[in-house]
Amino acid sequence: MKTSNFEYPIAKDNDGKTIWKFLISEFKPKGKIFTPFNIISVPVILLGIVLIVIRFWKGIGSITNLTQEVPWGLWIGFDVVTGVAFAGGAYVLTFIVYILNNQKYHSIVRITVLNGFLAYVFYAGALLLDLGRPWNVINPIIGNSFGTSSVLFLVAWHFLLYMLAQLIEFSPAVAEWLGAKRARKILSGMTIAAVIFGITLSTLHQSGLGALYLMAKDKIHPLWYSEFIPILFLVSSIFAGLSMVIFEGSISHKVFFNQISEKHNKEQDGIVRGLSRICAGAMFAYFALQVLIFIHQKRWDLLGTPMGYWYLLEMIGFVLIPMLMFVSGYRRKSINMIKTAAILTMVGVILNRLNVTVIGFKWDEAIRYVPSWMEVVVTLTVIFTEIWIFRWVVRRMPVLRDAPIWAKNQDK
Amino acid sequence: MGLDRRGFMKTLGVAGTTLALGKTAFAAGKGKESIEFYGILYDSTRCVGCQTCENSCAEKHGLPAPTEVPEAGVIRKTDESRRTVVNLFKTTKGEVYVKNQCMHCNEPACAAACLTQAMYKTKEGPVIWRGNKCMGCRYCMVSCPFDVPKFEFHSANPKITKCDMCYDRILEGKKPACAENCPAEAITFGTRRELIQEARKRIAAQPDVYSDLIYGEREAGGTGEVYVAQVPPVELGFKTNLQNESYPALSKGFLYAVPSVFVLLPVLLLGIHETTKTNKNHQNEGDENE
Ligand code: SF4
Ligand code: SF4
């Protein structure tokens, strides 16, 4: 069992020479090398790197199945749109802990923010792979071409700023790792401001991702298109993010069990139950919204089509059912049921995002877009690399384990 | 946005102030006064399907000359190597040719979508693409209701390609290459207002020859390219389910809400934070018991 007395090398001996020794030692791998995850992920990442080289050398069409009719595929629809929805846990949790001052969830804030930050770096970063002329990405940033009427402009800026906000939210952990006491004091003083800024940005770009598709009115299947896509995306990002927190938490607690203090371990079930209640509430609101939109748009006749069945599957199988499971898991204190509900919910969110962006996009086109295996490998490369970095950080910084005592004293 | 600018230009033009002249001259870089969007009227009843427009377009833009000819039942689409195509349709009034290219919308979805203003509605009317700005995100393609912009998927330095109404020629005071060379005078270049008047005149003069719909007059908020033909657009492969409101209007509501969210939400959050602050210690204790 680790306690809060975990030793921080630099904190003990804080002079320049040891910082380098410390950093070098920290860059060495910790933990076993031949784990199943490593054995699978390393070849995939290597192959993915080769594919990315080919992509920049021969063009996007050389490894993707994108067409002139379907210019955005898996990389946008899954990596960016779905990935960012799953990263929504960070803004929801910071809202609960820092804005509502509910300390119950404090112990999982750091890991969630770290997860969110890395998700943005990698999944939003995957956007760069999809850009045909990435060297011009600087244009909308340095301001020599502001396309302010563009939703994508807004989303891109919000990604950037939000990454910054999350970095600030996470930075005290880095400072604790390095034993930088004064820096930590300054950085943790910025947390509330970063949180408020971050939640505002998240509200706008989670919905903005949906708003991206507003102009594609005639291209998206009417069961998935409505003027309310932005609101639906925002509300669903709440339970998408929290389901991810539940899911990721159950894995982290196994993989990093030696990092977690007994106290936190005991708290965990209560946290999961609390989250399941919030998920159920958000899903209820989402489901009600969907029903209202459905009735408002008078789309009854569409239900009898294959796309209609697909829609019902998503709405009932992956929204309504997991919602009820969250409720019953909460009541019966069944953590397993809550975990299953979280997984179903995640599948539902993936389905929903893909239905808007890929499956329902140009659904009536004669030749449908299906991602190539190479697009899938690149997507996996992005995800695996993120997990590698995530693991690297968790093993070194006080993310899951308690902060050092000096840091706790600072907060008093 | 386009309409506003157009209205603005009109007012200035009518007032005839030298200021307006100076301004437009500066922006156009050619000293050419333009107070209205230019457009093109295409008349299917005159088109003979000779593909001169396709050939002159290819020549003007350094693209390969077309190898296929229009054929009924086959729909050729524009792509990276051709910016305009002529197709043949079997209709209730016999075989009819139709030329397709960018519609040069009054309020283009592509330009509203573009986050770098690479897609750009010029004040002369043509919608052009500017390679030094474009980052190749292809959001313009996702947004264009006519599926016009194309992308060079097989290039390491890909371009977005589409008809630019020969913007450089227009700045030189010339007509677009297709309009210049069409032997059947099926392609008329002029200001959009003149063209719609001309279209109405033609329909009124020969109501039995023309269908009375002018495609592009209202579709997607009005387009710079307008069409008249023997038969209604639905028989000629046109998209007829498009809204008459402009497409950028669809995301305007969202974009307008952004500034207020940005101002109000942080204040609200700060307020909640301050009021719940006192709970902090209580909850800490409460948690221990759970
Ligand atoms: S037709 Fe498409 S590409 Fe052409 S101006 Fe309109 S929106 Fe832009
Ligand atoms: S691909 Fe280029 S022109 Fe099209 S929206 Fe993106 S930046 Fe603009």
β-strand number of chain B: 9
As for the number of domains of chain A, it is: 1
Give the H and E element order of chain A: HHHHHHHHHHHHHHHHH
Heteromolecules bound? iron/sulfur cluster
Shape of chain B: elongated
Describe this protein's structure.
The complex is a heterodimer of chains A (412) and B (290). Chain A has one domain (35-411): Formate dehydrogenase/DMSO reductase fold (Up-down Bundle). Chain A has helices spanning 9-12, 16-27, 36-58, 74-86, 89-99, 109-124, 126-130, 139-142, 151-178, 181-189, 191-211, 229-255, 262-297, 306-331, 335-359, 373-396, 405-411. Residues 1-7 and 9-14 of chain A have low confidence and may be disordered. Chain A is mostly helical and 412 residues long. Chain B is α+β, with helices and mostly antiparallel strands. Chain B has a single domain (36-250), classed as 2-Layer Sandwich (Alpha-Beta Plaits), CATH 3.30.70.20. Chain B is 37% helix and 13% strand. Chain B has ten helices and nine strands. Chain B has helices at residues 2-15, 18-28, 52-60, 109-113, 139-143, 167-171, 177-181, 192-205, 248-276, 279-289; strands at 38-43, 85-91, 94-100, 119-121, 127-129, 150-151, 160-161, 187-191, 225-228. The model of chain B is unreliable at 1-34 and 283-290 (pLDDT under 50). Chains A and B meet through helix 3, helix 5, helix 9 and helix 11 of A and helix 4, helix 5, strand 6, helix 9 and helix 10 of B. One iron/sulfur cluster binds next to helix 4 of chain B.
